[in-house]
Amino acid sequence: MHEGRACFLGALVAAEGASGALDDVIGDEDDVAIAAITAAELLVGVELADKRRKSSRERFVEEILQSIPVETYDVNIARHHARWLAEVKRAGRPRGAHDPMIAATAVARDRAVVTTNVGHFKDLPEVRVVPLPAPLPPILNFGEDLE
Fold first, then answer.
1. pLDDT: is 132 or 88 the higher one?
2. Residue 86: strand, helix, or coil
């Protein structure tokens, strides 16, 4: 990846479908972290997995949570988050709370958002977005139904 400080999103789920190894998508030089809501999305993916996939998905998500720091949600992040939720609502573009929360985490921690869903972040001011190649297989977007 080699993008400096990043809130790393889509590549984590891509790794599950590829070989399951985080080393395939995270380089030694990368300073990555995930937003707390991203951790929740990953854990919901475990809870919603069918019996055939649940065990392997749980191992994969636990590897992520043990290997990658999780940025906690604090009042600084909450200020950015609230501002963007209000802006998109006023502009008639309401959306779920999760993407603005991820973006707020990235801005507050001076990170970029690394994602296949560039469109979810492009209209949020101050957010640096690093696109990942798309598409990811739909089965790998296991947090998408949360919003």
1. 88
2. helix
Q: Which pLDDT value is given to residue 95?
A: 82
pLDDT-based confidence at residue 51 (cuts at 50, 70, 90): very high
More confident call, 20 vs 26: 26
CA distance 89 to 51: 39
Largest CA distance in the chain: 44
Cβ neighbours of 67 (radius 10 Å): 12
In this prediction, residues 121-145 reach a mean pLDDT of: 65
Walk me through the domains of the chain, giving residue ranges and CATH numbers.
5-146 (3.40.50.1010)
Instruction: Show Cβ contacts of residue 3 under 8 Å, excluding neighbours closer than 6 positions.
Output: 30, 112, 114, 130
CA distances from 74 to 51, 71, 81, 134 (A): 35, 9, 10, 31
What's the burial of 120, exposed, middle or buried (CB within 10 Å: 0-12/13-18/19+)?
Answer: buried
- The answer to whether 98 and 146 are in contact (CB under 8 A) is yes
Which parts of the chain fold into alpha helices (H)? 10-17, 36-48, 51-67, 75-90, 98-108
